[in-house]
Each structure stands twice: as C-alpha cells, then as structure tokens.
Amino acid sequence: MLEFFFATGHYSAPSMGQAGKTVRRISPEPGSGGCALDGYDGPAPMGAASSLYVHIPFCRSKCAYCDFFSLSGFSEEAMEAYAQSLILELEAYTPIYPDLLPREGLRSIYIGGGTPSILPVPALRFLLKALFPYLKKGGEWSIECNPESLNEEKLKIFEDGGITRISLGLQSLEDQALQIAGRPGRVDEGLRALSLLGRLWKGSWSADLIAGLPGQSLDGLVSDIKRACDAGASHISLYSLSIEEGSGFHRRLLSQGPAFLPPAELADDMFFAAKEELGRNGLRRYEVSNWALAGRECRHNLGYWQVEPYLGIGPGAVSTLRLPGSETLRINRAQDLSSYLDGSQADCGASSYERISAQESLRDYLLMSLRTTGAADCGYPAGAQASVLSSRFALDGKSLLSRLGSALKASGFSLLGGLGGVAEALMLDDTGLDRLNPALLEVFRCLDAL
412: phi > 0 → left, psi -120 to 50 → alpha, else beta; which? Predict the structure, then answer.
C-alpha cells in the first residue's frame, strides 16, 4: 500500500460572503509597521523571498476532492477588483520590509487556485502586467488552468504577459470519474485543451491527474497519461486520491461509508500502472507525485520542497519566511474574501502567525527535501542538502546525512546513489518514495535520539 501522505494541515472554506464590492485603495505609511504583520511581535523576517504564490480563489464549482480555499458565484467585476487587491497587498510589503522582494527579481511566480484561468480577460491582463516586473529575468512563471476555461485568447494573453509554464488541471479523461468528482468540465473539453496546448503553446506545460477516483479505470488512467504526453506535456503531476477533511468526498464518506471509493488495492494498481506509463514516455520521477522530462521540473515547487522562503498573497495564501537563529515564520492569510474585496484586508494584514523553532524548522526541511531526488538542470542539485544543513542550521551536514542514511538502510530503505562514508545528500529510491511516511518516521526517530 502507498504510504506517502504526511499530514500538513488543511484549509476549510468559510461562507462566500458578498460579491461585487469595490476595492478600497490602501497606501500604508513607510515605517509604520501597522499593516505589515498586525498581531505579530516577534523578530522581523530576514533575507529575501525567492518566490511568490498568488492565490485565485474563484472556481466555477467546488470539486468533491478539494479542500483548498475556493469559492464560486462571483461576478466579473468582483474578480477584477480582486486582481487589484492582490497587487495592493504585494505593494504594501515594500515600505515595511524593503528587502523582502529581491532587487534582481523573484526566481519564480506561481498563480494557483482555485481556477486562475476563470478570471476575465481585463483582470488577467492587469494582473500579469502588474506582476511581470517582480520576476527575475529567465525566471519561471506558472499559471493553473482548467480545460473548460482555457481558450486561444487566454493562451495569447499568457504568452504576451510573460507566462512560461501552464499547469492544466486535467484530473481524468473519463466522464464518469469527472462527474462523480464534481468537475465542471467533461472529456471533450479536456481533449480540446490538450489540442490547444499541443498546437499553440510555445512554453512548457504540465498536466495534473488523479489516481483512484470513483468511476475511474486503470486502463483509462494509463490512456490519459499517453494522451497528455502525445500532446506535448513535459511534466505530469500524478496524485493518489486523498480524502481531505471538509471536502465533498469526506462528507460522503461520513454519510455513506467507503463503498463509493475504489478498493485500495485497485487504487494502488492504478498508481503503479501510471508510473510505468510515465517511464515509457521518458518522464523521470523527481518528487513523490511529480514526473518530468530533464530540465522541465517545476522550479517553483522545488523551492517549496527545499523550504526556500516564499511570499503568498491573497486570502487563504501561506507565506514561509526565515527568522534569525534558523527559525521560520509562517503567515496564514485570512480566508475572508468579503473583507479582501472591500479593502479592509487588502494590505499585509494576516489572520495568524506561527513562529517555528529551529528544531521544527529542521524537521520541516528534512520532511520536504526527502520528497524529491533533486533537479540539477533547474538549479537544485541532489547534493544541496549537506550545504543547506551546514549554512542554515549550523550543523555538520555530511555527518548528519550519513547517520540518517545509515538508519534508513538499517530499516530496509534503499537510497539513490548508495551512501558512502560521507553523504552529500539523502535521496530515497522509487520504492522509498512510495513509502515516504515510514521513512520520515525513521528519520525523526533518529533525530530525536541524537
């Protein structure tokens, strides 16, 4: 059985609130500190963020597996006001923390959701134009799209606006699975989107697929991968269905029991068959749920998995910034779209802060970095762990990795590249990635014993 899901917390969506309000412009006074981190009295973040996440909460409808902050039923006017609020929030950081956004530009920007491609054309044009100056030359800029809201006009807007990478939320190309999952589109729209990207998109693009959906077949999932790769996808994110608290599937599970779900053995068989098909198409597994052609790995997500500092804007977004002494500050933006649209939270205000100790920050780093095998072509060589442990946590990185690697091997895990007397990196092989949770528990047991 697959064992690579580790609890990291979940979103829960509040009531929709009012739509269509106009945005109130906010211009914080330089040095005031009031709007920056209201309610936080700890040390200021240090250093610059390497990436930016932009949350677009709008969707045509809520999918049954989704527990992210997403809402439906908003007007185009409200979505345009929201795009303005995002930029106001981003600009509000500058006078308070002038070093937070690097002068040379961000390594990556990721516009996620929700469904960013649902934004009306004026909002998309405004948002891309406003964000473009923040991106480093040669940086990666991704946007998530759903098949039913992707068209030639929006592809042209993406290209003209500087987007370099599209992530297509395909999920499945079987109508029964899409219908049960509450997806707004159907197979014909998915096939149309694949054709559009294959014919017209000059940048790189990825497809998201889920294994283990109710109504999905093993042969269908394998066929979906082949269709996406044949259309030109250079990256595939393959997720095993996880029933998240607060989702539609979770409510159905509580009320009806698990009979609507495929047996666990079948879901595992789907995932393993899909892995084989991905390999046949030349894609390498570089993270638990991600495969790519060489050099087409997602730089933004690699930054997450290396726990690089990043800024998140928009209600429901999370930021992770560094503090002195190897500590970390996690900022959780309020999931309150109504206040965001009327301007009362369209600044740097946030709902909660978590100051994470150096020890917990170390555990977070190991938890995340063990998910991946590195991507040298994207600036994340496999040997980065030892230097990070030494520079950020003031540890003997090679010695620590060697001890952790020995503990994993003693517990039956195989490591990529073997493990000599001194380790530069700790990387699980393909089988180990499928059993990530037990591996992490062993790593944490070893850490606690040091």
Answer: left
